[in-house]
Specification:
By secondary structure, the protein is of the alpha+beta class. Helices cover 24% and strands 46% of the residues. The protein has helices at 3-21, 43-48, 60-72; strands spanning 32-42, 55-57, 79-94, 97-110, 115-130, 133-143.
């Protein structure tokens, strides 16, 4: 195992979680390459080979548009997330690309202070290695459940 590679991937995953959890959503798209892809689906859809997704963005510009909509257009109850991820497996594909799989759980904290489990699942990541650091080429968020009790406003 390449410890530096493992630590670099875990650092990217932590920067992703902190950007969302600390409401620094404008930093979130910069964790992706220019033509990076973000997709949120369910374990059921993935297992059945269905291409259906709850959210799809296939460029950094689309991710920026999503953040802009969250800030200026969408109306949703004030809330924030707290990500926890673990069991990260990292596999080098070639000298410039790695694949990572990790489990996650997201707690949702409402404006009034109540916390509740919101989503769990796994991240399927394809990460590009560059001199400037690591960025996601693709992040597929695979949720264990297909039931959500509210709008999926904030990225998982």
């Amino acid at each position: 195992m390449d410890i530096a590679l493992q630590l670099g991937v875990q650092n990217l995953l932590a920067r992703y979680a902190h950007a969302i959890d600390d409401d620094r959503l404008e930093e979130w798209p910069d964790l992706f390459v220019e033509d990076g892809r973000y997709r949120l689906t369910t374990a059921e859809n993935l297992a059945l080979g269905h291409p259906l997704s709850l959210i799809v963005a296939d460029s950094r510009a689309m991710l920026r548009d999503r953040v802009s909509a969250l800030r200026h257009a969408n109306i949703y109850e004030a809330q924030r997330y707290r990500h926890m991820h673990c069991a990260t497996l990292v596999e080098a594909i070639d000298a410039r690309t790695v694949r990572a799989v990790s489990s996650f759980q997201v707690l949702r904290i409402m404006h009034g202070g109540e916390s509740m489990p919101f989503a769990s699942g796994r991240y399927l990541d394809r990460i590009r290695l560059a001199d400037a650091g690591m960025q996601f080429e693709e992040r597929v968020v695979v949720c264990d459940s297909r039931a959500f009790d509210t709008l999926l406003a904030i990225p998982l």
